Amino acid sequence: MNQYHAVLSILGLFGMFAMQGQVVIDQNFTLDQYVNEILLGEGVTASNISLIGDPIQLAKLTDPSGNFSVTNGLVLSCGDPNRLADCQGDMNPTGLGTTFNDPDLLNVANSVPPLIGQSFTVSAVNDGCVLEFDFEAGGDSISFNYVFGSDEYLAWVNSSYNDIFAFFLSGPGISGPFAAPAEFPDGAINIAEVPGSDPVLPITISSVNDVTNSEYYINNPNPGPDDICINGYTTTFTASAAVQCGETYHIKLAIADGSDDFLESVVVLEAGSFSSNAVNLEADAVPFAANGLQNLVPYEDALGLPAVFSYPNGESFPFAAWSADNEMTITVDGQESVIDAVIIEGCNDAQFTIIRPEAESDLLDTLYLGLEGTAFLGLDYSDTFNQVVMNPGQTESEITLGVVDDGADEGVEYVQITYTYINGCGEEITTTSRVVILDPLPVEVTPMTVPCQGLDGTQELGYDNVTGYGPFRYVWGGNAWNNAWEDAADWTTSFDSTFSVLNANGELVPELTVELQVIDQCNKVFNFEQQVRFPIIFDDEICLEDRQDFPALNGDVYIEDVRYNGASLITGNPLGNTLRVDATPVGERYKLNELISGAEPWEGVITLVDTCGYETEATIKVRDCVIPNVFTPNNDASNDNFRIRGLTGFGGSQLLIYNRNGTVIFKDETLNDTEFELVWGGRYSNGDLAPEGTYQWVLLRSDGYKESGPLTLVRKR
Fold first, then answer.
1. Binning pLDDT at 50, 70 and 90, where does residue 385 land?
2. Same topology for domains 299-438 and 630-713, yes or no?
3. Under 8 Å between Cβ of 58 and 51
4. Which of 92, 419, 461, 661 has its CA 20 to 30 A from that of 607?
5. Which helix H or strand E contains 111, and what residues bound it?
6. How far is residue 338's CA from residue 332's CA, in Å, rounded to a whole number?
7. Residue among 375, 386, 379, 382 nearest 415 (CA)
8. Domain boundaries, the chain
9. Pick from 284, 287, 326: which is nearest to 18 by CA?
10. Rounded to an integer, what distance in angstroms lies between the CA atom of residue 379 and that of residue 385?
11. Burial class (CB in 10 A: 0-12, 13-18, 19+), 118
12. How far are the Cα atoms of 34, 310, 403, 420, 525 from residue 302, in angstroms, in the given order?
């Protein structure tokens, strides 16, 4: 069986969103915690940990701003690391001064001048901090990342104040000029070196600065509020060495002032980076977003997410509790287990990485993964996920689980991934990871209670609550705003805006519809509409002794009153039987029903008052609607047109005119419910004059009613 060094990273939901902030220094750790919980990564175990120096010289550094070379790390300092977070802090050392002595560090410091063409000498190393421990590696190499920084920059470059650090490694197969514990008689080597230097250069302020190896130097003389408080520092370096799997080695991490005991220098070892290339597979939730998304916001910082994801099939997942404690046991589909990662369909994904040693790189090989669970290969995730093909020359391969939004209501599913391999120590390792797959969480919005429109013709609309995976991006009323990449203080799930409800003529519009588009963190788009309708009276005509629907757009919307000269036509009778309004009381409001006319013609302006006090006016005419059987279209302004009236509310009604041969010579139609009449002016449809004679008219009302009669056209001379 081929030996593979494998790394399983289940890359799960909620990538960290970059947040601004100052450097944080934390010294509330034991020596063991500094090494085992902060420094060490996968594939390495440590023992026999010791410190030379003052415990105050150690700290955990966190840089939320991302401006420093590493965001988290273990600090070894010549002074108090709190100075890194407080630019007004004490620059004096801890007071160890000349009580510290390390010939190897001094030799490393003094090896630099001749290598860079200088002649200065470092007289002593003071204020030393030396962290040492034994370790075993699970592979054939170890490496870790680090940054060097100093307040000696740039004033004391190429001087005797050449602050120094070194990483002295000793153990089987290593032979070097530096001292090592008695059990490692072949000595130690220094693995802190300027990359690509020839001859090899140790790292000091004189070997890495704005002139020498400047590509590795970052100047920082005037740090801002989000910067680390040190005059200059390096880019991230990597220290590495070949080791023998399972054997015990010793590392000595040492830093000291050169010649003086003033001005601070630090080395920051990146948290979790001290690792071996062969590790026991552990599936941790590491950010990985699908569809190119980069800034998924973690659960604890998100907006609109519920504590428990619940689905119609009765299944649920305690997302809040799991986010706070990834080691908790959760029951999914009847199985209790620790969940390594959570995937939301169409939002994020999981990735499996396998690394094989260089010795196997010439082979063509296929690896197979064991899969089980309630999610199915080829249905819920990629049908190629069960195998990994390693081509000749390839040492690393990644497989993405390939979860997509399949649109099915499945609730909570899981897939268990098992991989068995032989590690660098010849041990058979079986690793198992369990990934939960959740259905997408839809965005839901709650419209605010709509207030009255203002008398100035404005209307306020908005939403009290938006739930889903936020922060959200919004397109509200055609304007894009509050994008998720803005400052967290600007994220919101409630908002309102004021809109005009008047047209270009300053008249109230019948309705206002505002579209809201919400884009969640998974880049899913959800569309909503908020609509407000306004009752508006319009000009109309009504036949004598008739009743018809009240002439108002959105007449089903409750109103306050209908008035003539300020007097109510609903509760009073200012026009007697000439014109009346029928309305149904609804609390203190009314629902409009009908307009009722009397036996006498009438014309006047009446006012509709909506529940917000906004008034609209219209001219109402009461007309004689008798259908004539003779008309004289000779343009003398008397009986020039044949009319059929009383068609309000019957949009789509048709008037047909037939000649004596039964041929339709004219046709007219009401285009909407507000048209009162259909008219024939005595011409053919092409505009030519129709001759005198007898015709037949037919009314096809839109409600199915049909009426017809004879009509005589007379042209007076």
1. confident
2. yes
3. yes
4. 461
5. helix 103-115
6. 10
7. 375
8. 19-276, 299-438, 447-531, 536-623, 630-713
9. 287
10. 12
11. middle
12. 31, 18, 22, 37, 17
Report whether the peptide linkage leading into residue 199 is cis, meaning its omega lies within 30 degrees of zero: yes
Contact status, residue 220 vs residue 210, Cβ threshold 8 Å: no
Sorting pLDDT into bands at 50, 70 and 90, what band is 3?
Answer: very low
Q: Decide: helix, strand or coil at residue 546.
A: coil
Residue 218: what are its φ and ψ, rounded to 5°?
A: -125, 115
Region of 457 (left: φ > 0; alpha: ψ -120 to 50; beta: rest) is left
Number of neighbouring beta carbons within 10 Å of residue 6:
24
| Architecture of the domain spanning 299-438 | Sandwich (2.60)
Long-range CB pairs of 363-368, under 8 A, 24+ apart, other chains included: 363/2, 363/390, 363/392, 364/389, 364/390, 364/391, 364/392, 365/2, 365/389, 365/390, 366/390, 367/4, 367/419, 367/421
Q: Is the CB of residue 365 less than 8 Å from the CB of residue 392?
A: no
Can you read off the two tokens belonging to residue 451? 């207030």
Instruction: Please say whether the structural domain 630-713 has been given the CATH code 3.40.50.720.
Output: no
User: Picking from 82-91, 187-196, 640-649, which range would have the lowest pLDDT averaged per residue?
Assistant: 82-91
Residue 158: count other Cβ atoms within 10 Å of its Cβ. 20
Binned at pLDDT 50, 70 and 90, residue 279 comes out as very low
Contact 474, 484 (CB under 8 A): no
Distance of alpha carbon 657 from alpha carbon 547, whole angstroms: 27
pTM beyond cutoff 0.70: no
What span, in angstroms and rounded, lies between the C-alpha atoms of 476 and 715?
A: 62
The band of 1, judged by pLDDT with boundaries at 50, 70 and 90, is very low
Paired tokens of 22: 């100052």
d(CA 320, CA 291): 25
Q: Which residues contact 196 (CB under 8 A, 6 or more apart)?
A: none
* Average pLDDT over all residues of the chain: 87
Residue 61 burial (10 A CB sphere; 0-12, 13-18, 19+): buried
pLDDT of residue 664: 95
Closest CA to 128 of 166, 90, 169: 166
- Which residues in 329-353 are b (16+ Cβ under 10 Å) and which e? ebebeeeeeebbbbbbbbbbbbbbe
Q: Among 394, 345, 388, which Cα is nearest to 370's?
A: 388
Task: Identify which has the larger pLDDT, 286 or 491.
Answer: 491
Determine the Cα–Cα distance for residues 554 and 130; give it in Å rounded to an integer. Answer: 83
Nearest to 457 by CA among 416, 504, 412: 504
- For residue 28, which amino acid is it? N
Does residue 618 surpass a pLDDT of 60? yes
Which CATH entry fits the domain spanning 536-623: 1.10.8, 2.60.40, 2.30.230, 2.30.30? 2.60.40
CB 100 within 8 A of CB 256: yes
C-alpha span between 230 and 673 (Å, rounded) = 79
Mean pLDDT across 60-68: 88
Cβ atoms of 65 and 81 within 8 Å: the answer is no
150 class by beta-carbon count within 10 Å (0-12 exposed, 13-18 middle, 19+ buried): buried
Residue 242 confidence (pLDDT) above 50: yes
Peptide bond into 379 cis (omega under 30): no
